[in-house]
Amino acid sequence: MVYSRYGWSSNIRDIHRLLYKMAVGQILARRFTTSAVRRFHVDEGPGNNLPFSVANKWRLLGVMTLFFGSGFAAPFLVVRHQLLKK
């Protein structure tokens, strides 16, 4: 017995159609996940999954100072601009 959109059915054709849809869905899902995993290989280890290099500590210090310093200084620069504006 299979429950279709028309209600419960014991029709063998409906059973085959349901099993086929389930099998095709599983095959497509399996193909997608395995192909997605095979295409991408990322080197393991510390620093390899970051969008910037951590090899040179002085360059990293400069980049981080600019990044965080600009975010910290922005409100003060906006207030200064507003106070100097006539």
UniProtKB/TrEMBL annotation:
Q: What is this protein called?
A: Cytochrome c oxidase subunit 7C, mitochondrial
According to its UniProt entry, the protein's GO biological process terms are:
mitochondrial electron transport, cytochrome c to oxygen
Q: Which residues form a coiled coil?
A: none
| The entry's keywords | Membrane, Mitochondrion, Mitochondrion inner membrane, Transit peptide, Transmembrane, Transmembrane helix
GO CC terms, sorted: mitochondrial inner membrane; respiratory chain complex IV
Gene symbol of the encoding locus: COX7C
Q: In which pathway does it act?
A: Energy metabolism; oxidative phosphorylation
Q: InterPro entries per the record?
A: COX7C/Cox8, COX7C/Cox8_sf
Tell me which family the UniProt entry assigns to this protein.
Belongs to the cytochrome c oxidase VIIc family.
TM annotation in the entry? 58-79
For this UniProt entry, what is the primary localization, expressed as one broad class?
Answer: mitochondrion
Q: Which superkingdom, per the lineage?
A: Eukaryota
Entry-linked Pfam families: COX7C
The answer to whether UniProt assigns keyword ATP-binding to this entry is: no
